[in-house]
Amino acid sequence: MSAAVDRDRLWRSHMEMAEIGATARGGVCRLALTDEDKVSRDLFVEWAEAAGCAVRVDVVGNIFARRAGTDPNAPPVMTGSHLDTQPLGGRFDGAYGVLAGLEVVQALNDAGAETRAPLDIVVWTDEEGCRFTTKTMGSAVFAGLRSVADVLDGVDPDGLRFGDELARIGYAGSEACGGFAIGAYFEAHIE
Ligand SMILES: [Zn+2]
Fold first, then answer.
1. Which of 1, 28, 97, 161 has CA 20 to 30 A from 20's CA?
2. What's the CA gap between 106 and 3, in Å, rounded?
């Protein structure tokens, strides 16, 4: 059995995602934990659930959309990236890694293919670091390089706290961040 990506569907998903925070000159401004970030997250969750994934959100807002495998105890194969952008961001940086993962799930679904391990599509919170203290905040906590409290207490130039903004957009999840094994991690990325 072979599974093939649908390049037209993959392109359409990028163009629809790029409308969220679209700038006049064809780019995207979707800073972390803004209203635009929320809308892009909501769209991803909607698409992932429509593709049959179970969605979890951890305490720093990382989103994991899981396509089940035949062995629920197998460590997941994970792929993903980020949906936040820099102020003068492009349409593909970050979004490609997320939407490519979603397309893989959809292609497997179309082919009726099962995998032994679960497949997780991840959206890391605040990769760009343009608003709060530093970049790659969500993935740094997942990797054990920063504490949850350190990230949640970060403030933006307006004095707004990371943890409060995360709750405001509805992505202060209940899952612990990290602490589970990953079988493999792949990330497609366009800068
Ligand atoms: Zn990026």
1. 161
2. 9
